[in-house]
Design brief:
Blueprint (H helix, E strand, L loop, with lengths): L2 H17 L4 H21 L1 H6 L5 E5 L9 E5 L1 H19 L7 H20 L3 H10 L1 H11 L4 H34 L6 H4 L9 H15 L8 H8 L2 H11 L1 H14 L1 H6 L1 H20 L4 H22 L2 H32 L10 H4 L1 H14 L6 H14 L3 H27 L16 H19 L2 H11 L6
Antiparallel strand pairs: 1-2
């Protein structure tokens, strides 16, 4: 077994062991130890990767089999950065859900989800890409449906319906690519680098592109395919929302960067007015909807729609700055939104409320919570010096070279972000508590909770003040996608 294969196999084995753990205590410690070990293992992959100067590192088991299907995995800066994000958020999410009910099942599903996500980010073959794409649906379905809030079953089935139907379009596109490649060359292959050199006909390429793009767009989600996301976030447990927002939504953006832009560069260029426009629509619509929310989880859920719009804007500029901004924004959003969902979970565990109007003067009762919430919220709205600013500005800068109008509209979204973030913070933490406020029942963050949030804060500050190492790490994998 290769090192990259072991990265996704290890949490799968850990999930089975946690499921069979003899007690709740054993399950807790085994899950946490396994997540920590996988995180350290993912960091250890940097050493051989750095030795290759950022080149794509590949592992292959066996030769091509029937219809060219072979197991092939590899990492570059883009995929390895998302592997780090996955292992980090899994570890912090598990640590932050120490009191979860029925822990054997919950943490087993959590580790299975981590395994599927890691497999998705390392495979270089469309057949196995689709296998892992489908695998990640089931653990999240059970996490929402079994451990979520009051309307958890509705949200879980809605999540499954939207994402599964999107996967059917993805399947059609994935099957079409190797089939047409075989018809043109006489060779069967599902490997993404080979398909990037496939002589596809000009008439077929746009239709295949549209089918695959639709499947990826549901997962991001892109308007008007976003309706499943607010309900899924609202009903999911806090740790589930951390992985859903922090990593699962990035699978769609990753699919565009890993599959569609390399295989269909010309169609992607032609699609700029449509998909770039949808990215701007995401930015503006998500921000406006966030302003109208009275539930903190729904508010943060709509900000995810807005923030991922910056990924679309930067990505479809097909410029060096825009692509770097899109890749960095995936990491930035995972950190800031993951921390916000975790903090909302901490509050909900204490008072079983999360409405904006349920609080007031919370800064007096929980000053540490107020500090971390303000810090993370400022990073989320793109304050200079914190991570969100770098990703958003690079994305908009890249688009400004191609479409100044779309870039200008995206800037409007950064202004609207202030309109949903600061009023909500003012009401929850500084405004006088009303008669029905649950603030008197609130206690401040524990030492363990503060330790988790210090990790988020350190990474948010580092990527905001000194993003150059991460941008240099991502550059070799993004450079082949630059057209403009």
């Amino acid at each position: 077994m290769g090192a990259l294969t072991g990265l996704w196999v290890a949490p799968a084995v850990a999930a089975a062991l946690v499921w069979a753990a003899p007690s709740r205590r054993a399950a807790r410690w085994l899950a946490l130890a396994s997540a920590a070990a996988v995180f350290v293992y993912s960091i250890g992959l940097l050493v051989p990767f750095a030795a290759d100067s950022g080149a794509l590192r590949l592992e292959q088991l066996g030769e091509s089999s029937l219809y060219g299907i072979r197991y092939r995995v590899g990492v570059d800066g883009l995929s390895l950065s998302l592997c780090w994000l996955t292992t980090l958020l899994t570890l912090l999410g598990l640590a932050g859900s120490w009191s979860a009910e029925r822990p054997q099942g919950f943490w087993s599903a959590f580790l299975a989800l981590e395994s599927g996500l890691l497999g998705l980010f390392v495979v270089q073959n469309l057949f196995y890409f689709y296998v892992f794409w489908e695998i990640i649906l089931l653990p999240m379905f059970f996490i929402i449906g079994l451990w979520g809030s009051d309307r958890r079953r509705y949200a879980a089935y809605k999540f499954l319906l939207y994402t599964f139907l999107g996967s059917l379009f993805l399947l059609v596109g994935f099957i079409s690519l190797p089939t047409l490649h075989h018809a043109a060359t006489g060779v069967w292959t599902w490997d993404i680098p080979d398909l990037a050199r496939s002589p596809l006909s000009r008439s077929a390429a746009p239709w295949i592109y549209a089918a695959i793009a639709l499947g990826f767009a549901v997962k991001i989600p892109v308007l008007p395919l976003h309706n499943w996301l607010p309900d899924a976030h609202t009903e999911a447990p806090a740790a589930g929302s951390v992985l859903l927002a922090g990593v699962m939504l990035k699978a769609g953006v990753y699919g565009f960067l890993r599959v569609l832009l390399p295989v269909f560069p010309e169609v992607s260029t032609a699609a700029l007015p449509w998909l770039g426009g949808l990215g701007v629509a995401n930015i503006l619509y998500g921000a406006l909807c966030a302003m109208a929310q009275g539930d903190l989880k729904r508010l943060v859920a709509y900000t995810s729609i807005s923030h991922l719009g910056f990924c679309l804007v930067g990505m479809f500029s097909q410029t060096g700055e825009g692509l770097a901004g899109a890749a960095l924004q995936m990491l930035n959003h995972g950190l800031s939104t993951g921390a916000l969902f975790l903090m909302i979970g901490f509050v909900y565990e204490r008072v079983h409320r999360r409405g904006v109007a349920d609080f007031g003067d919370l800064a007096t009762a929980a000053p540490w919570l107020a500090f971390f919430f303000a810090f993370t919220l400022l990073s989320s709205i793109g304050l200079p010096g914190l991570n969100g600013f770098v990703g958003e500005m690079l994305s908009l800068l890249g688009m400004s070279r191609v479409s100044p109008l779309l870039s200008a509209l995206g800037v409007v979204g950064t202004v609207l972000a202030v309109g949903y973030a600061l009023p909500a913070f003012q009401q929850v933490f500084w405004a006088p508590a009303g008669a029905g406020s649950v603030t008197p029942k609130m206690t401040d963050l524990s030492l363990g909770e503060r330790s988790i949030l210090w990790v988020f804060a350190a990474l948010i500050l580092w990527l905001g003040v000194y993003p150059q190492p991460m941008l240099a790490f991502l550059e070799p994998s993004l450079a082949p996608l630059v057209i403009r």
